[in-house]
Amino acid sequence: MNYSVLVHISKSFISFWYQQQGAPFEPLAIKEGNVMPLYFYAKDNDFILGSAARERFLNGEQVNAFGNYFEIIANPASYFTVYGNKKHVKFLLYYAVEQYLSHFLNTVLYKNESIEGYRNNFPLRFTFSNDVAQKERLLVESIFKESGYDNVESLSYTQFLFSFLNNENYFNPKVPVLLLSGLDGNLFIELFLKSFINSISQAIIEEQGSDPRIKYMAKMIYDDAMATSRLNLNLKNELSHLLPYAKEFLLQDSAIPKGDITLSDGTNCWVKIKRKDLDQLLIYDEGISKIIKAIEKILIENAFQSNTVQIILNGDAVNTQYFIDKLKEKYGNVIGTPSKTQNEVLKLLFQNISDAGYQLKPNPINVTIPATEIPSRSTPPPPAPPSASIRHVTEPPYQPIQVAPPPPSRPSPPPPKVTAPPLMPPRSTAPPPMPPRSTAPPPMPPKVTAPPPMPPKVTAPPPMPPRVNAGPPKPPPPPPPPPKKK
């Protein structure tokens, strides 16, 4: 196999990419594209992934349409039916991915064959966003392994992200790093030290995972669209859909941003927003103070000061000038990831897969620095108390294990002097001593045809028991007949 398909999964979206040996990676798209919302529709012989499934789900068709994948898979009684087969809902993702793998075989490799014959050796790789927990990642991987995919593996996107940033000198690996990422409206804060595979502390702040101007703009677009169309769509789901429009409206150099939008159900609307209303909302926004409070909590628990760490804003949702300016008021070292980050990280991912021969091998890429070069902490910290929002990792799973050489051999101490006889005496050929004043020999074991040897200096043997194999004793001879009379 000289190709690979990479699937990136968050709790709301899924994307597909592929690469063939000697060629750059490409998006793997069918009709809608290679990036789609994580919604499914399954009924009879129809199986749909993406926006069409989301539209049916949001419109109330929730018997055959499914959303919130990582929540519903925890219900053992939740099933779907497709192609005449009743399956647990965890297999929705399996059917969706196989749909794209079959498309890859037919349209990229030009194979007119079923995916069934390729499952065993198909180079399938997964990466996950920060909002997908480790147990959920393991579940996804196990679904495919149990279904016959032996050449499947999960890779750390964060590991390759830091590898790219380090290669480009965007940050100092000798300084502890706080990585801020926005996903589905929530903000993920992770602290990295020495190893950039797994964070040593983590916090999640709900509803603060984007530039607050974008959030307020999306809400204003929603309000205007609902008033214009007289619809009543779900606010939370619609805000996630309207975030791209909100970013476009913010870029308009106008006191009244305006334009056409399309709601999640396909309804087209024309909306206009007053920028002064947005500015008024920002005056009372407390989002930045919540973020700073969470950052300070992590720094205190790990005994770092504000001037000893650097903050990296990752992704379009948080990598905005508004966030940078607000955080720089408190922290001096705040940077954003460059616009080419995703493309370069995908290059490194596929390069790693190719270097491994498209087979499962240990992942060698990592960004580490010697422990002596880490900035000293302010005071030796006590053990951090457990917290629901803080996760401590003591050993990253992807680092190769260093095996220490065996210690030099020491001379063996002399054995202790033994003054008592060993527990088991050597086997003796002489018969066991007879018990004192015994008038009879010890009982004979079964099936013995000869008596035991007699002990020495015994004047008379004890009476011998009858032999085992001998018959009954013979009767005494009859008396001689009387003499005959003459």
Provide an overview of this structure:
It is a single chain. By secondary structure, this protein is α+β, with helices and mostly antiparallel strands. It is built from 11 helices and 18 strands. The protein has helices spanning about 50-60, 70, 90-105, 135-145, 155-165, 210-230, 235-250, 275-285, 285-300, 320-330, 340-355; strands at about 5-10, 15-20, 25, 35, 40-45, 45-50, 65, 80, 85-90, 125-130, 150-155, 175-185, 185-190, 200-205, 260, 270, 310-315, 335. Strands 1, 2, 3, 4, 10 and 11 form a 6-stranded mixed β-sheet that branches. The protein has a 5-stranded mixed β-sheet with strand order 14-13-12-17-18, covered by helices on one side. Strands 6-5-7 form a 3-stranded antiparallel β-sheet, sandwiched between helices. A hairpin with a 2-residue loop joins strand 12 (about 175-185) and strand 13. Helix 6 (about 210-230) packs across helix 7. The longest helix has 18 residues, at about 210-230. It is globular, with a radius of gyration of 40 Å. It starts with a strand and ends in a 131-residue tail after the last helix. The relative contact order is 0.10. Residues about 365-445, about 445-450, about 455-465 and about 465-470 have low confidence and may be disordered.
